Amino acid sequence: MSLPPDRPERNDTPPEGRGRLAEALAEGRLKVVLAAAAVFWLVLFLAAGLRPIVALLGLLATAGAALAVLPAGGTAARPQPLDRYPARRWPDTGMKLLLDGMEEPAFLTDADGMLRYQNAAAAAEFGPARVGDPLAFKLRVPDILEALNRAGQGESVPPVRFTERGPAERHFIVRCSPLRLPRPEPRRRPDFVLVRLRDESEAVRLDRMRTDFIANASHELRTPLASLTGFVETLLGPARRDEANRERFLAIMLEQARRMGRLIDDLMSLSRLEMKAHVRPTGAVDLAEVLPAVADMMAPVAAGRQATISVAASPAAPVSGDRDELMQVFANLVENAVKYGRDGGRIGLSLTGETGDDGRPGFRAGVTDDGPGIPADHLPRLTERFYRVDAARSREQHGTGLGLAIVKHIVNRHHGRLAIRSEVGVGTTVSVWLPRRPGPEAEMTKTAEDAATETGAI
Q: Which side of the chain, N or C, has fewer Cβ within a 10 Å radius?
């Protein structure tokens, strides 16, 4: 961000009297000064023998000087209190460079809240603002403006928290700090107010995620653990010698233990995905090879429900990604289609080229079943952790409620989009859009454009 030229400083010193002599001589002493001058020149005229014209001219010159120095009427103008004249200073280049060196967005205003400078981080985060406008034009948050006003009065202000609503909720902590330049005389109002904004959205999100995780995971683990505890106590107590029910109890206990194992595995998988959510995979993967491999892998699961899996033939579909994670995505979607579809149903895997909403070329891979479908009011929440449309049926199918949450995290990590469409009585389609991987020609073209830009050819 280029620094605007430093603006000249306006003199913010209040107007004083006509001179230091006028302040030193008090009010109403003009006559005393003129009388002293007359006596002085009279003595010179009589003792030194000055010519009358010279003594008269000297007296007139002294009287004129006294009139020029002293205020009219012999009263010195009283200086106004400093705080009645607000500072109108501008930051110098050093101060601007210091602000641009800060990673967090920062605004610099005068004591009245008029913007004097914004650093590069603030311009990138909130957009450029015009110097000289009130900061309220850019930050329309009453709590921030109140803190800015109090800091402009020289008060120490506690941090302010505010939440920016939108597609992605963001949380900020704002600090308004009064700044005073070195001066020989103290002043109450500051020269500048520094407004710093720290984005704590990630910390808030992680805190909420941790709270939700503890609440949901403890609830999900408590049920099978309680079941295990109950059967163990039964086998140790009343059913100690019950040979008829022992095998049935042990089978139920084994299933509950496996359920806990599946839940822990999914929780660990989700945790690993969240740790590397900001790292985009760079490997080359062909979706046209992944989908048939998933169909072969899930064929035994489908056979258990007498369902069939078909894959529509498609040309190569290169994307940038992690092959194992993409296999996990489509295996999970196919498994859901088998579990929650109808017995003897048909599951189709399709792959088509499609331009994204942002104009990027990409591919859409879909998994379609002809099951009972999902009511529309459940669709927005399907990717939430532990959310189930039918909790009883989900437990019967050994579901953990984390499958689609894992799918969503993997798709987001690959900079893709997940869409779910369903109609009750017709079936469900879950599709994943992923951006196309740039080929060698695209890479060469980009390299040539960059080189031409550097040499000024473009």
A: C
